[in-house]
Automatic annotation (TrEMBL):
Domain SGNH hydrolase-type esterase: 51-240
Highest rank taxon of the organism: Bacteria
A molecular function (GO) term: phosphatidylcholine lysophospholipase activity
Organism: Draconibacterium sediminis
Signal peptide start-end: none
Protein name as annotated: SGNH hydrolase-type esterase domain-containing protein
Amino acid sequence: MSISRRNFLYKSTAGAVAAASISGIVSSCVSEPKQKAASIFAKGATVLFQGDSITDAGRDKQNESPNRAWSFGNGYALLAASQLLNTYPAEQLSIYNRGISGNKVFQLAERWDKDCMELKPDVLSILIGVNDYWHTRNGNYDGTIDIYENDYRALLKRTQEAFPGVKLVLCEPFYVLKTSAVDETWIEPMQQYQAAAKKISDEFETIWVPFQKVFDEAIKHASGTYWTPDGVHPSMAGAELMAAAWLKAVGE
């Protein structure tokens, strides 16, 4: 067998193993939803991804058109949106990414008219919370868990009042230990933010994406830095893991 042929087979096998690992991780962590995605992503639906840098992922903010790769950056939102468009071509979905790096909940609220209300989403996915804690560590933000919870609740109430039929997908803020930015001091405070997000998810009866559980399982298969170098922003593998978990949660 030639070296090139051997290398091709090795890379193909490695890719298959990685895909199988991600599928297995997600299957063990994300429960089957009560309804399938086909009942959520109706014909002509508008889908909106919102959040901070994890969702932003370096997207082009000069052209925020739907269904445009450059408008999605290179993160989980691009991968999840691509899968939806491939699965439901007849539904003619309009999918947007309006995540902005560094955002906390109050900053989502400040731009909500432009980056949510004007888009009239039928499905709204939000991943927010890590900066609400992280930015308190360097003294540049004096937010508290109560501020996070109250602001988040008010944002969702405002959204539901405007769009009573909107389907909400709340994503758990997460952290991964033994990485460049995250250590054990993150555990207790981040668990409070995660509990607040889950409490709000339950109150509003949203779809819940348990990212912390997914990453906790993932580090049993590869190091934390394999999934996210700094413990917050995903690698290529981490982005694929997140997209797979998000799709499973929504019933895809």
